[in-house]
């Protein structure tokens, strides 16, 4: 089945997505040339793998900000883009070719359904980051109107994201069609008149504007109670005291990076732009700051009700697992507490917030960033929502 002719009715196909051999090996047909060596038993260089097939985005700003500020404190860390296959981020962790993945809840459910012994340890997406993009004038806040219509995806695996999102809004997912329009071209396909809508997410909205893709959106961050992407590791690693201690220290770096970005979003964008000059050229300060502010809203959530950065809302996760069991995305019920844990959250958040604020406030911004009015950008974050 090619990307050009992939069209299917809603309902995840195990044959389409499960490309891990019976022996537990990630196959070359599933992931292509990986460039990764087999992982050693103990952590050496700790490898985090992206769910997007690229690192040249603003989504991972906490890492780059933390790395620049020295918050990983001597840990040997590595970031890998991975293949664009939407399920690679869990497959690589499962077979030991990476140590931590960043799947959407839907892709995490794929891992659970297929017997991968993974556990969510740091919930990045406190609010639902996913949205449905429409061409201007064609959107609706009633997603039931998508029945009989076609939604474009960058990867076929993303159906595991859209199905529960739509079902939770009362959509009969059996009446929705999907077309795999390819990464990174699915947004361009929507603009070009293909399909009726496309999956999107916070942060990407601003990046699409930079590419001339001006859509209107049904926003999950405003309308959905489902969780978003999370950090997963092998469950067995949590039983190893040395690995657990490493994970706590590693996640503290991410938490500090999140706090840094919250305190000074412009400085966090500059940290990413220094890493990826092409991204800086394509986005520029204003759209870069817009993108990161969209994501900070998702990552932070309602912090007054959370146990810190990365804390799981078990009720939200349970609602997600109940929904996907109801629609047949998983065959057996899942208890959120069995696959998600907040055990590492206190240690991850055990840092000096005053120091991080001092660090972030002390950054000298470049002229383009210093000229930005952050509060004005915040006031217009959701202007592209369907009216």
Give a description of the structure.
The chain is of the alpha/beta class. The protein has 18 helices and 11 strands. The strands form 3 sheets. A 6-stranded mixed sheet has the order 1-8-7-9-6-10, sandwiched between helices. A 3-stranded parallel sheet has the order 3-2-4, covered by helices on one side. Helix 5 (105-113) crosses helix 6 and helix 10 (241-263) packs across helix 11. The chain is globular. The two termini are 38 Å apart. Residues 62-266 form the SsuA/THI5-like domain. It comes from Mesorhizobium opportunistum. InterPro entries: NMT1/THI5, SsuA/THI5, TAT_signal.
Task: List the main descriptive attributes of the protein structure presented here.
globular; disordered N terminus; alpha/beta; 18 helices; 6-stranded mixed beta sheet
As a whole number of angstroms, the C-alpha radius of gyration is: 20 Å
Residue share in helix: 40-55%
Kindly estimate the percentage of residues that lie in beta strands according to DSSP.
5-15%
Residue runs with pLDDT of under 50 for 5 or more positions? 1-41
Distance from first to last alpha carbon: 38 Å
Q: Note the quaternary state here.
A: single chain
Q: Averaging pLDDT over every residue, what do you get?
A: 90
Largest sheet: 6 strands, mixed
Total number of strands: 11
Discrete helix count: 18
The global form is globular
Series of secondary-structure elements, N-terminal to C-terminal = EHHEHEHEHEEEHEHEHEHEHHHHHHHHH
Helical/strand content category: alpha/beta
Which strand order does the major sheet show?
Answer: 1-8-7-9-6-10
Subunit structure: Homodimer.
Pathway: Cofactor biosynthesis; thiamine diphosphate biosynthesis
Organism: Mesorhizobium opportunistum
Family: Belongs to the NMT1/THI5 family.
């Amino acid at each position: 089945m090619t990307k050009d002719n992939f069209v299917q009715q809603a309902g995840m196909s195990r044959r389409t997505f499960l490309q891990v051999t019976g022996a537990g090996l990630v196959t070359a047909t599933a992931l292509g040339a990986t460039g990764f060596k087999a992982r050693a038993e103990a952590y050496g260089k700790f490898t985090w793998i992206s769910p997007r097939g690229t690192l040249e985005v603003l989504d991972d700003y906490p890492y780059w900000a933390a790395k620049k500020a020295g918050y990983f404190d001597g840990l040997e860390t590595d970031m890998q883009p991975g293949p664009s296959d939407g399920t690679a981020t869990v497959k690589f962790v499962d077979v030991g070719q990476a140590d931590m993945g960043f799947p959407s809840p839907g892709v995490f459910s794929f891992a659970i359904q297929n017997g991968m012994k993974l556990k969510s340890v740091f919930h990045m997406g406190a609010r639902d980051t996913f949205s449905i993009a429409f061409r201007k004038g064609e959107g609706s806040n009633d997603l039931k109107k998508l029945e009989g219509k076609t939604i474009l995806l960058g990867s076929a695996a993303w159906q595991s994201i859209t199905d529960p999102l739509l079902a939770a809004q009362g959509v009969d997912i059996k009446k929705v069609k999907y077309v795999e329009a390819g990464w990174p071209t699915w947004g361009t396909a929507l603009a070009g008149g293909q399909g009726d809508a496309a999956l999107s997410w916070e942060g990407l909205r601003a990046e699409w504007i930079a590419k001339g893709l001006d859509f209107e959106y049904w926003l999950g961050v405003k309308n959905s109670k489902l969780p978003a992407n999370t950090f997963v590791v092998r469950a067995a690693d949590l039983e190893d005291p040395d690995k657990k201690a490493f994970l706590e220290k590693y996640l503290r770096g991410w938490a500090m990076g999140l706090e840094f970005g919250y305190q000074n979003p412009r400085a966090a964008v500059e940290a990413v732009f220094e890493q990826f000059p092409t991204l800086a050229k394509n986005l520029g300060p204003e759209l870069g700051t817009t993108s990161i502010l969209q994501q900070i809203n998702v990552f932070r959530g309602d912090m007054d009700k959370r146990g810190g950065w990365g804390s799981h809302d078990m009720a939200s996760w349970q609602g997600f697992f109940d929904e996907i069991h109801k629609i047949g995305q998983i065959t057996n019920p899942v208890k959120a507490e069995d696959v998600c844990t907040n055990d590492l959250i206190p240690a991850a958040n055990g840092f000096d917030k005053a120091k991080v604020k001092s660090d972030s406030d002390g950054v000298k911004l470049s002229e383009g960033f210093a000229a930005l009015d952050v509060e004005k950008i915040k006031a217009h974050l959701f202007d592209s929502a369907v009216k």
